[in-house]
Specification:
alpha/beta; five-stranded parallel beta sheet; three-stranded antiparallel beta sheet
């Protein structure tokens, strides 16, 4: 099996890039951020703080998170409900940051991530893939961009879907999430020592995709 780990901060374009790379290679794409967002959204739906470790842990046995594909696009389900749109809202991002700091949630999702990787050539993106989930991945990428660029990308994504959002608020949420993710005690956002850092601030999606594919070819040879 060949595993490609793409880590980086919120809004860096990890999901989009990972999906493109996986499609070009014919690999499975595994969006771990979506899994954490689904747990965070589940907490919000139950009306409690996603940072409340006791309540979140008590909730976990009652939810089942699965991945599926519709017309080749990954969808996330919680107890068979498609939450793929809900988990992309700004409040889901902050909720994901909160629950991802909880050891119980990381244990809950760790097995699912590792099982998927064990069965497939895959591209997996997140914040601790290269350091914790797939430390032996053949290719590790740390994808980043400036907070302002990431906020602008998220703003355009949300407004194009008809959501009313404030750019300055998005920027502050991204800065806050960067701090939360890099300072949490459990599996913090961290660049693996053997990863290749790519700053996508001034790069197109295609340029980033081609850069990663070149790295994969150099390290893994034939990829299909």
């Amino acid at each position: 099996m060949i595993h490609i780990a793409i880590d980086g901060p919120s809004g860096a374009g990890k999901s989009t890039i990972a999906r493109l790379v996986a499609s070009r290679l014919g690999y499975m794409y595994i969006d771990t951020g979506a899994l954490y967002r689904s747990v965070g959204v589940s907490a919000l739906k139950r009306g409690f703080d996603p940072a409340d470790a006791q309540k979140v842990e008590q909730m976990l046995p009652s939810i089942r998170v699965t991945l599926g594909f519709v017309d080749g696009i990954q969808h996330v389900y919680v107890n068979e409900e498609d939450v793929s749109e809900q988990i992309r809202l700004p409040e889901a991002s902050m909720a994901a940051s909160a629950v991802s700091a909880l050891p119980a949630v990381r244990r809950f999702l760790f097995g699912l991530q590792r099982d998927l990787a064990a069965a497939h050539n895959c591209v997996m993106d997140g914040r601790d893939i290269g350091t914790v989930v797939l430390p032996d991945a053949e290719v590790k990428i740390f994808l980043t961009a400036s907070p302002e660029v990431r906020a602008r990308r998220r703003y355009l994504e949300l407004t194009q879907k008809g959501n009313a959002v404030d750019f300055d608020q998005l920027l502050q949420e991204i800065i806050q999430r960067d701090y939360n993710d890099s300072h949490r005690a459990v599996a913090p956002l961290k660049k693996a020592e053997d990863s290749v850092e790519i700053d996508s601030s001034d790069m197109s999606l295609e340029e980033v995709t081609q850069r990663i594919l070149a790295i994969v070819r150099a390290r893994c040879g034939g990829t299909k």
